[in-house]
């Protein structure tokens, strides 16, 4: 009984981890830095002009001083 309980627990933790990772937005391409006054709205508009579904400013690499404007396609 203890072995079965352990396997079920491991299985449920694995499923939960996978479902959380799927929800994280994956960017298809970062097109440049977002300036302080730039904001998500301008980044979103620039990504839409480049035929992406959307975009937002985000720190993709650790230690960056300015966030990148990263575009994405909706996978749905």
From TrEMBL:
- InterPro entries xrefs: Defensin-like_dom
Any GO BP: killing of cells of another organism
**Which keywords label this protein?**
Antimicrobial, Disulfide bond, Fungicide, Membrane, Plant defense, Transmembrane, Transmembrane helix
Coiled-coil residue windows = none
| Domain called Defensin-like: residue spans | 27-72
UniProt key word Transmembrane:
yes
**Transmembrane spans:** 6-24
- Protein family according to the UniProt entry: Belongs to the DEFL family.
Protein's name according to its UniProt entry: Defensin-like domain-containing protein
Task: Write down the species.
Answer: Arabidopsis suecica
